[in-house]
Amino acid sequence: MSGGDKPAKVYALHLAVLAVLFTLNFVLPAYYHGLMARIMVLAVFAMGYNVLFGYAGLLSLGHAMFFAAGMYGTGLTIVHFGFSVPLAFVGGIACGAVLAFVIGLLALRTSGVAFMIVTMMFAQVFALSLIYFAGWTGGDQGLVIPQPARILNLGAAAFDLTDPTVRYMTALALFAAALFATLALVRSRHGRVLVAIRENEERTKMLGYDTFANKLAAVTVSGTISAAAGAAFALLFGYVGANFAGVQYSILPLLWVLLGGAATTLGPLLGTLVMYVVTDTASSFTSAWLLIVGVVLILLVLFFPKGILGTLRARWLGWLP
Amino acid sequence: MIDPLPMDPLLVTKGLTRRFGGLKAVDGVDFTLMPGEIRAVIGPNGAGKTTFVSMVCGRILPSAGMILFDGGDITDMPPHSRVRLGIAYTFQITSVFPNLSVYDNVALPVQRTLTDGRSRGAIHTGVLTALEKVGLADRAAMQAGQLAYGHQRLLEVAMGLALKPRLLILDEPTQGLSDAEIEDFVRLVRTVAEDATVLLIEHNMPLVMQLADRITVFDAGRVLAEGTPEQIRADAAVQAAYLGTGAGEAA
């Protein structure tokens, strides 16, 4: 993107990460195999969040609604309308895209702290609506997507998404698609404009850019990727629940991105992974695991304020995208 | 001095006014700028020069009056659309993107002007051309914030140039530059003026006298005088309001 552009190195690194994830399918024990599939799907959510927060510099506290829009868009169409897997998946993504566009139109009239509050309020409305329309959504209980509805029929072949290997590979495919989509985005001209808006919006306007339109595009792309993660989560893990629309799931992607490194393409995966490993390890030997997670987060913020990959990039690896 | 053939003005303002509370920062300014001119706007601090050009480029909306660019009314047009019409503004306070590379700073305006699409090569050529014009090509990979102050000013000008403007507004471009840098700058503005009209706010009087085709003098939000450098030098009102009393400012 800049004078220090090293595309060969960049693509080699991203392909190597995918190769490692592919290999893990064959070596991980059952428990970690399932966990890793979950981490990859949630990393896609974090990547969506990163487009808006890391690159465009807009801090949303309402991204759970986009994740949940994908999740419910997929789950409800399967349960109530008997949609097939691919149709429900596309439907879920479309729900998230439309919601993100509309929320963007409204919320982008504000900026800074007001933007955080407005997005959070919309997400609360969304979460409460899910509980209110319990007859459709299952309310607090959520809905379980029955196993027969989670079979992907492609011509003659049928893939059972409840099978661990199929589930892992599907999660990996989604992750790879999202990874290369964000990589292409941040290396594009539009990505350069988003970074410019983050750095100095006023100046960007005076270079002839409609910053509102660019930010709206960023919200929509970010919401769409988040919705894709939600839709995949519903299909792969068979559960649709209102807790995924709660404020916790708006803050988690922010933490994952901060931890891994905002505005880095691989940071969201790394942040999600590290957070899960720390949580998992801590909860295995103490019930006060949240305390340990908290301490780890404070240490990371103190010593790695740019996140893990952000710090590596600032110190040694200037070519990291 | 002025071309006797009828030529359409590039920029016209009619009764342009901006109030800040009770203060009229710009007060009923009628202003005409012909294509190809280098026009200097001078005046004491607080005379309304920056407010005036900010209304022309759209950063500030006028309280009253009208702005015409190339015959079209742009009074209510958002700033990014004015840039697309060909009005480029370089900031009084250096306003490059400090955390981006010099290359990316210039790539932003270059890619804005490219209408043919996606070619990375075209952006690359455009960036290097703009950087060579201001002599920063060898610093393309540096972070803009790490450039020396004078170089940041030049980068700012390069960003303006890269927009291929029809009207380039320079707000105190030589502030903080050394004498040698100012000489380079004068050469640069003359090159720019071959294809664009230049509107320059400047305090450095020798530079203004040397560079400008015409000078407009602002005082207390109004146009006090307008004319060639010789006419302005001889104008008694200007001497009283500005040159005579503001000698320290001309340094």
How would you describe this protein?
The complex is a heterodimer of chains A (321) and B (251). Chain A has 14 helices and four strands. Chain A has 321 residues and is mainly α. Chain A has one domain: ABC transporter involved in vitamin B12 uptake, BtuC, CATH 1.10.3470. Chain A has a two-stranded antiparallel sheet. In chain A, strands 2-3 form a two-stranded antiparallel ribbon. In chain A, a hairpin with a 2-residue loop joins strand 2 and strand 3 (157-160). In chain A, helix 11 packs parallel to helix 14. The radius of gyration of chain A is 19 Å and the shape is globular. In chain B, strands 6-7-8-3-9-10 form a six-stranded mixed sheet, with helices on both faces. In chain B, a hairpin with a 2-residue loop joins strand 1 and strand 2. In chain B, helix 3 (102-113) crosses helix 4 (120-134), helix 3 (102-113) runs parallel beside helix 5 (149-162) and helix 4 (120-134) crosses helix 5. Mean pLDDT of chain B is 87; it is low at 246-251. The chains are: A mainly alpha (321), B alpha/beta (251). The A-B interface holds A 1-4, 189, 192-193, 195-196, 199-200, 202-211 and B 57, 59, 78-81, 83-84, 88-89, 91, 95-104, 107-109, 111-113, 118, 123, 140-142, 159, 163.
